[in-house]
Amino acid sequence: MRKKSYKEKDAGKVVLYTTTMGIVRSTYQRCLLVKKILRNLLVKYEERDVFMSMEYQDEIRDRMRSDQILVPQLFIDGQYVGTNKPVRQHGV
């Protein structure tokens, strides 16, 4: 897998890799939450739905250097920001 240059392609953009497939409810809910947060902050973003696009599936695998697709994933100006993976609390 060769990592492409996304810095130029996504310059000035907020890009959110997400899914509209609701079968895995927790993943779908986390995607909805990130979109809601961005909308509440009035952030314009480009949504890349990996469920609807093989191109976006390949792209996120390349960007994350992984064969596994985990969404949501947020990039700003071509740089990886992160995800909203739930934090596990010890002893709870």
Describe the structure.
Residues 14-81 form the Glutaredoxin domain. Strand 1, helix 2 and strand 2 form a beta-alpha-beta unit. The chain starts with 5 loop residues before the first helix and ends in a 10-residue tail after the last strand. The chain has a four-stranded mixed beta sheet, with helices on both faces. 18% of the residues are buried. The chain has helices spanning 6-9, 25-40, 54-64, and strands at 14-18, 46-49, 73-76, 79-82. It contains three helices and four strands; from the N terminus they run H-E-H-E-H-E-E.
The Cα radius of gyration reads 14 Å
- Average per-residue pLDDT, rounded, comes to 89
Series of H and E elements: HEHEHEE
Low-confidence stretches: none
Largest sheet: 4 strands, mixed
Give the proportion of residues in helices.
25-40%
* Structural category: alpha+beta
Indicate the proportion of strand residues. 15-25%
Termini separation: 40 Å
The count of helical stretches stands at 3
Tally of DSSP β-strands: 4
| Order of strands across the main sheet | 2-1-3-4
What is the approximate shape?
globular
